[in-house]
Specification:
The protein is an all-alpha fold. The chain has a single domain, classed as Orthogonal Bundle (Globin-like), CATH 1.10.490. It is built from 8 helices and no strands. Helix 3 crosses helix 4 and helix 3 crosses helix 6. It is globular and about 35 Å long. The protein binds protoporphyrin IX containing FE. Protoporphyrin IX containing FE binds next to helix 4, helix 5 and helix 6. The site of protoporphyrin IX containing FE has 22 residues, from helix 4, helix 5 and helix 6.
Length: about 160
């Protein structure tokens, strides 16, 4: 029972509703203004997409899968070498959950600020999209729902890549 309670306490902040709640092991970052606008896309209006992603649990599995793969894939390994994966998992889960209308707030930094020092190029962006597609496939998200979600992320390319 104690373990279940502890697991809940540590898992819950990944879907924080308002103030940024950091997880144990996260590195500190410079202060920034917290806003859902930092997520870079407006959320879907109905819950159809959330259902297609199997709710917050499905989103959580997809992000865990993606974050694991970017650390292994030769096309993305370098750019993520020095990353804080505890924070990245938390903020990505919040962002995807917010966009998919899962009732979460996004408490991470905006897409320009967080990527500007990483020199991400278009081929790396495309590689990450492929890894996300693989993760969504493994979760059993329909092709149509995958494409609707990717259409929300696609305009962020100009905020993430330098060339
Ligand atoms: C639409 C596509 C993308 C989205 C939605 C996205 C989202 C995010 C989010 C939410 C964060 C963390 C924000 C925070 O810490 O406050 C982040 C950080 C980061 N992203 Fe992305 N990202 C995208 C594309 C990419 C690509 C293509 C790359 C490189 C291949 C990349 C590399 C990074 C790196 C290196 C960090 C910093 C991690 C750290 O310093 O700990 N991102 N991204």
């Amino acid at each position: 029972m104690k373990h279940i309670l502890l697991a809940f306490l540590f898992a819950a902040p990944a879907f924080a509703q308002s103030a940024p709640v950091t997880l144990p092991g996260e590195e500190e970052v410079d202060a920034y203004e917290v806003s859902n606008a930092n997520a870079g896309a407006k959320p879907f209006e109905s819950t159809t997409m959330l259902e297609a992603f199997h709710g917050r649990e499905g989103i959580s599995r997809i992000v865990d899968d993606l974050v694991e793969q970017v650390q292994k894939d030769p096309r993305t390994i370098e750019v993520f070498r020095a990353s804080d994966f505890v924070r990245l998992r938390r903020t990505l889960k919040e962002q995807f959950c917010y966009i998919l209308n899962g009732g979460c707030s996004y408490t991470g930094r905006d897409m320009v600020k967080v990527h500007e020092d990483h020199g991400v190029v278009a081929s790396e962006f495309n590689a990450l999209v492929e890894l996300l597609q693989d993760a969504m496939d493994r979760e059993g998200v329909s092709f149509g729902a995958q494409n609707k979600f990717l259409a929300k992320l696609a305009p962020m390319k100009r905020e993430v890549v330098v060339r």
